[in-house]
Amino acid sequence: MAREFDLVDWIRSRQPCSALVPVPAGDDMAVLKWPPEQLLLVGVDQVLDTVHFDSAVHAPRDIGRKAMNRNLSDCAAMACLPVAAVAAVALKQGSSLEYAQELYLGMQDAAAAFGAVVVGGDTGSWRGNLVMTVTILGRSAEVQPVRRRGARPGDGLYVTGALGGSLLGRHMTFVPRVAEGRVLGRCGSVTAMIDLSDGLSRDLLHLCKASEVGAVVDAASVPVHPDAVELSRRDGKRAIEHALHDGEDYELLFTSRSAPPIGKRIGTISAERSLLIEIDGRQTPLEAGGWEHEL
User: Fold this and answer.
1) pLDDT one-digit tens code per residue, 194-226
2) What's the domain range around 203?
């Protein structure tokens, strides 16, 4: 069984310092030095056992990595650089110290890949399943944040990679598109952007609502991941349906006034506030599938 202060002491022993994090974790609050003239971006995300992962199947380091990577994907969506994160973890009673350490190491590994550090947080235990909440701090670093609001009629609709079938394993092993987000933020033509966590059809709806526009998706242009094809063989659903609705791809969906340096065009933004999909020259409504929590 993990003892809270044994875990805290272990985490403190592993804390690095940097130009932006002059004081390692261990006090009541983290201390950061923020560069002048840079915007601070803040995001928070939560992962739940049996919803976003299965602790009976997935290794704790992979769970910790996913908890952090979901936040890093939000940094990618707004073209910012991650700097630091704090994490609150509610362990299932009876969890070992080694299990808690592996969760932390997963978060640390994911953050370090993009130059960020875990600067603090909180731990507890309860009778329920594992819950992890990560808050990320990012900086604009000379790139204006890209918002969901900004798409205009006539803009092209693009995606950074292949979609669908992530539940075959990619939902735990994805690499956040932080570098790609920075490239797109710098290029000057990108007007709106979102990361694909809830599925192409639903996240496109979010982007269009924020921008007060509609979109036409060309089904033949949507890049379909081999995992979507494999899942189609197993469940009989068309691979394109998996690409449109599965979610947890963590690619970037964005709009651009002109051809961007990266990404594949999959459609066009329209003035009519409706989502349509074009298949063999025929346009029909694109219903928002994907993931939505029931409250």
Assistant:
1) 999 999 999 999 999 999 999 999 999 999 999
2) 156-285
Would you say residue 185 lies in a domain?
Answer: yes
pLDDT of residue 289: 81
The radius of gyration computed from the CA coordinates of the chain, to the nearest angstrom, equals 20
Contacts of 105 (CB under 8 A, 6+ apart): 61, 64
CATH of the domain at 214: 3.90.650.10
Rounded CA separation 121/135 (Å): 9
Give the DSSP H/E element, type plus range, for residue 279: strand 275-279
Total structural domains within the chain: 2
Q: In this predicted model, which residue has the larger pLDDT, 151 or 14?
A: 151
Task: Pull the structure tokens for residue 27.
Answer: 């006090």
Contact 157, 264 (CB under 8 A): no
Beta bridge partners of 132: 47, 89
Query: Residues 130, 173: one domain?
Result: no
Torsion sign across C-alpha atoms 80, 82, 84, 88: positive
Provide the CATH number for the domain around residue 93: 3.30.1330.10
Q: What is the mean pLDDT of residues 90-108?
A: 96
Would you call 200 helix, strand, or coil by DSSP? helix
The answer to whether residue 198 is domain-embedded is: yes
* Whole-number Å distance between alpha carbons of 148 and 285: 22
Q: 3-class SS at 209?
A: helix
Amino acid identity, residue 168?
Answer: L
Place of tokens 């272990």: 10
| Residue 74, domain member (yes or no) | yes
Domain boundary among 84, 112, 139: 139
Neighbours of 37 (CB within 10 A): 7
| Token pair listed for 244 | 């449109």
Judge if 271 and 190 occupy the same domain: yes
